[in-house]
Amino acid sequence: MRTGVSYLPPHNPRHIRTDLRDIRALGCDDVLAAYQENDAVYFTGKIDLLPAIAREEGLRPIAIFWGGLNFFGGGRSSQFLLAHPEAHQVMRDGSWHAGGCYLNPICLGEIRAFIDRIAHAGFAGFFVDEPSLMECHCAACRDAFARWYEGDLASAPAPQVAAFRRRSVLHYIETITDYIRATHPRLETMCCLMPSDRDLWTDVAALRGLDCLGTDLYWANDARDLEEMRPYVREMAALCRKHGKVHQEWFQCWGIAAGNEERAAAQARLLASERPDALYTWAFNAQLGTSESCSNPTLAWSLAAAALRAAKL
Q1: b or e along 24-45 (b: 16 or more beta carbons within 10 Å of the residue's beta carbon)?
Q2: Which residues in the chain show pLDDT less than 50?
Q3: pLDDT for 240-255, tens place per residue?
Q4: Which range of residues forms the domain containing residue 183?
Q5: pLDDT confidence of residue 73
Q6: CB 3.0–4.6 Å: which of 170, 285, 287, 307 could bond 292 by disulfide?
Q7: How many domains in the chain?
Q8: CA pair distance 248, 230, nearest whole angstrom
């Protein structure tokens, strides 16, 4: 089983190296570095210096475009969308939404440019994290709906619109992974789909350009019985086996409320007992110093670190 940690890197290589040594000391194989738009422009050491340091410390570097084009994740503050208002999602009433659109060719071009950047920097993989359904009525969405369904998105029946939204996410992942296959074939292509998007799992697992698929059952602050996680994990495992994908699972080390730290650790142990191909946690040091920090980051991280060590035994 591979193990790894998501990581918001600093730009100073001295601090990168210190953190990566700590991650490797846990027995981890992968570091999943989360980048924002400004990192490619202003804080370039985060991208350009990390891959070589990671390899020197025995880690495989994977890149995540975290908050890019305000698609998902923390720190959604897109300079690209400020400069390209035509790339915004558009609501039914014509107003803008703060996010970019999966189907907009301008957005897709920016994602491709970021992939080129991380490939040239020496990363081993690119992670498409939590692509989920969106409600957009921009020109690109209307055009795609007309091509795919020979109809008008604005007046289409709800079941057809729902099918279109699912197909849009699938098209986005396929476009990205096919681009990587064609231009940067050494990059591993990875994707995580939330449990709430379970109806996308089967189609995404079948994508030929995708290497690795998983889900993130972040139930640390949820009252559900953790044993109810197993059917999700086993369904994902079966899909990955069927389509020849690496099966990854994520456990929570962010936003854990005080008193729920052991519950999060129990989740990690349960996931490890299912023996996925890869077990990852979000995020390094319990996301300390961000708005996603755990209430007791010291305790949360110590338990997560112990779970990562134990998973390698």
Answers
A1: bebebbbbbbbbbbebbeebeb
A2: none
A3: 999 999 999 999 999 9
A4: 2-311
A5: 76
A6: 287
A7: 1
A8: 14
Tens digit of pLDDT for each residue in 69-96? 998 777 788 999 999 999 999 999 999 8
Q: How far is CA 56 from the centre of its chain?
A: 25
Q: Domain holding 300: CATH number?
A: 3.20.20.80
Residue 47 is predicted with a pLDDT of 98
pTM of the model: 0.96
In the block, residue with structure tokens 């698609």: 71
CB 279 within 8 A of CB 288: no
SS3 2: strand
The pairs formed by 295-299 with CB atoms below 8 angstroms and a separation of 24 or more are 295/256, 295/257, 295/258, 296/256, 296/258, 296/261, 299/261
Q: Which amino acid is at 126?
A: F
Measure the CA–CA gap between 67 and 153, rounded to whole angstroms: 27
Residue 115 near residue 175, CB atoms below 8 Å: no
Residue 311 contacts residue 279 (beta carbons within 8 Å):
yes
Q: Do the beta carbons of residue 170 and residue 213 sit within 8 Å?
A: no
Look up tokens 């755990």; give the residue: 294
